[in-house]
Specification:
single chain, alpha+beta, Beta-Lactamase, Arc Repressor Mutant, subunit A, 6-stranded mixed beta sheet, 15 helices, 11 strands, about 40% helix, DNA binding, GAF-like_dom_sf, Tscrpt_reg_LuxR_C, transcription, LuxR family transcriptional regulator
């Protein structure tokens, strides 16, 4: 097994690649990390997934060399709906380590694993190595490497090397969420709506929903998929949620804008149009239960929480940062948080260092730029108070 020095050197080499002259985007971070790891730990099937740290649902990633499409609905059901299995992503986040090998977790009793029986074995895979991309309590991504019976088993040394990529990859992935920019590209500014059946066929899709879906950062093998895996995971989770409840996740788009996906179940009302791209022309039965998905711009208050998470603040630093955004003085923070003013100043220095700013004004301005500025592009106001650009500079009349 490689010693700590070798593992540290491996992690440092990856960190240098990820800190190149240009700030990589999220998919670039995943691609570089996976490529570096696969050079040392080969795999027959692999994927690299971004996760919403709040829900641990898929929000994009690389799937060109991933699982065959036919097992994905069952994988989503096990992973997100049923949350079964010793190496389920939610179980992994409760452990101290970042890498886990399924055969080791099962102590060789692979046939007892529902994930092995229903996902790996049907497609000829014998074992799976998972690597969490996380810092503290927040998990931002997941690397999955699988081998078939004809390949040598994963070794303890390979598992240790896989664990070593977690820290540099997580740091780079967090940076990418902050630095991929807020640009002025043409993105939707309203909610879109999808209606999906249990076979993940689209029964109804508004044009705005299709535009939002096109922005989600996922790479698939040709000919690709009509629905991102991020949406598939959400739909499968909604299927087992309590009646009347909603399931929500957030994904960052290729433009740097965030989209919130919200899913809930509804009984089919009458007849819906046939699936997009489906030639059978059959409608939905009135008593069929379908999944409705709303795709909309993420609200600024949610973005503020995401950005604070992406900076990697500790719980106390996050509290101090929130007080800064509320305009509190050092004395007010001290009284509110029951800590000394010296401790407040110490936390402020750490917050500013992680955010790359030098003052409270700079920090507030940075959060404003990332969370609110996109909403203020090209006035004037609509009648309900939203900033809007109608293409000709005129105000939108909402009636």
């Amino acid at each position: 097994m490689p010693g700590p020095v070798a593992r540290d050197a491996f992690a440092d080499a990856l960190g240098r690649r990820l800190r190149g002259p240009c700030s990589p985007g999220s998919l670039d971070v995943l691609r570089t990390t996976a490529g570096t790891l696969l050079d040392a730990v080969p795999a027959d099937v692999w994927c690299a997934v971004m996760l919403d740290p709040a829900t641990l649902l898929d929000t994009g990633g690389l799937h060109e060399h991933g699982f065959p499409q036919q097992v994905m609905p069952r994988l989503f059901a096990i992973e997100h709906a049923d949350q079964e299995g010793v190496d389920n992503v939610r179980a992994l986040t409760r452990r101290r380590g970042t890498a886990s090998l399924l055969s080791a977790s099962m102590r060789g009793r692979m046939a007892d694993s529902v994930y092995y029986r229903d996902v790996l074995r049907p497609v000829g895979l014998s074992d799976e190595l998972r690597v969490l991309l996380r810092d503290g309590p927040r998990t931002w991504g997941l690397l999955v490497l699988c081998r078939g019976p004809g390949a040598p088993p994963f070794t303890a040394a390979e598992t240790a090397l896989a664990a070593a990529v977690s820290a540099p990859a997580t740091a780079a992935l967090r940076r990418s969420l902050l630095l991929t920019g807020i640009d002025r590209d043409d993105v939707p500014d309203a909610a879109g709506l999808l209606v999906v059946d249990d076979a993940l066929r689209v029964r109804l899709a508004t044009a705005t929903a299709e535009r939002w879906l096109a922005l989600i950062q996922e790479a698939h093998p040709p000919p690709g998929r009509s629905l991102p895996y991020a949406l598939g995971a959400l739909v499968q989770t909604a299927r087992t949620a309590a009646p009347g409840s909603q399931v929500r996740s957030r994904a960052i788009g290729v433009t740097g804008h965030w989209v919130t996906l919200t899913a809930w179940r509804e009984a089919g009302a009458g007849t819906l149009p046939g699936p997009l791209g489906d030639t059978d022309g059959e409608g939905s039965e009135g008593d069929e239960v379908l999944t409705v998905v709303s795709l909309a711009p993420t609200h600024p208050r949610e973005l503020t929480a995401l950005v604070l998470d992406a900076y990697g603040l500790t719980p106390r630093e996050r509290q101090v940062a929130q007080q800064v955004l509320l305009g509190r003085s050092t004395a007010e923070m001290s009284a509110k948080l029951h800590i000394t003013e010296y401790t407040v100043q110490d936390h402020l220095r750490k917050v500013f260092d992680k955010a790359g700013v030098r003052s409270r004004r700079d920090f507030s301005g940075e959060l404003f730029r990332r969370c609110y500025l996109p909403k203020l592009d090209d006035p004037p106001l609509t009648k309900d108070g939203r900033m809007r650009d109608d293409g000709d500079g005129g105000a939108q009349d909402d009636g």
